[in-house]
């Protein structure tokens, strides 16, 4: 690798969503084949792009790289003549023994570059559009999935025109974060897809009452009980969100909190799709807004008084806050309401 080829290689690995460590030679005590300033990109599978010295140093380097990629912490390493396999933590540097004939010493700095977590947004709704617009600014790679996605401007976000669970699992693998922002449009299909991805976290934008009904449906269809129980709904941090952008901000704050708390999921990768894979599409452009979440809602007849009371007693706003004038425990919502018009949070 030439002097600055590592920059090109690093960009390529970042685009592929692959984690690696940049290993730099800090000091050398001859005899050694490396020189101060030599660099290499090292992957957890042992692939090395660049030059940081001969084979004697590689076992200690690979071990340190794997540890760094696990916890995200940079490390200074010294590889010096000593009994093979010996190791000492000297506080500011980790020293490894190397029983090689050369007898030289290397000091290296191992700097992990973790892949951005993958966020899968399921749903073709205004909140979904706000999510895919905002999430990349938070260091998240985004795939937007949903039946009926079409349009013109993805703003660099990969899109899949399907919410089929097996198709998304085949395309995306497992371990991503998932937000289901279906808002009454194929909710159950979206949740099944999220569970199929064995996500590092699933957030469902809906009221707790509606989520409870759908959890029961998932369990009745044979879904794993622990996975169903882990679905977060209502989703998001309670900030009094009302508009699609505010709801997206609320939900993404919860995703960021999970990530920073050490609950980061394995980094699923999006590879080139085979010929029979779901068709990649450009994302739908935002629809004209007229409701609180930017959706045009059909004209609906006024609900009967008992229905109106049931809706009021749901006692939750878009972001899981209790409504100011909420009644206490109420009977389940009639099916005609849950299947019909929905508010900005899908309930």
Give keywords:
347 residues, alpha/beta, Rossmann fold, 2 domains, five-stranded parallel sheet, 10 helices
Structure description:
30% of the residues lie in helices and 17% in strands. With 347 residues, the protein is an alpha/beta fold. The protein has two domains: 18-113, no CATH class; 116-287 and 304-347, Rossmann fold (3-Layer(aba) Sandwich), CATH 3.40.50. Strands 3-2-1-7-4-6-5 form a seven-stranded mixed sheet. Strands 10-9-8-11-12 form a five-stranded parallel sheet, sandwiched between helices. Helix 3 crosses helix 8 (244-263) and helix 4 (165-172) packs parallel to helix 5 (187-196). The chain starts with a helix and ends in a 9-residue tail after the last helix.
Return the CATH topology of the largest domain.
Rossmann fold
Helix content: 25-40%
Class inferred from helices and paired strands: alpha/beta
Q: Please write the string of helix (H) and strand (E) elements.
A: HEEEHEEEEEHEEHEHEHHHHH
CATH architecture of the largest domain: 3-Layer(aba) Sandwich
Task: Give the SSE map.
Elements: H1 5-15, E1 20-29, E2 39-42, E3 48-50, H2 58-71, E4 75-80, E5 87-89, E6 94-97, E7 105-113, E8 118-122, H3 126-134, E9 141-145, E10 158-160, H4 165-172, E11 177-180, H5 187-196, E12 201-204, H6 208-220, H7 225-229, H8 244-263, H9 305-313, H10 335-338
Parallel strand pairs: 4-6, 8-9, 8-11, 9-10, 11-12
Antiparallel strand pairs: 1-2, 1-7, 2-3, 4-7, 5-6
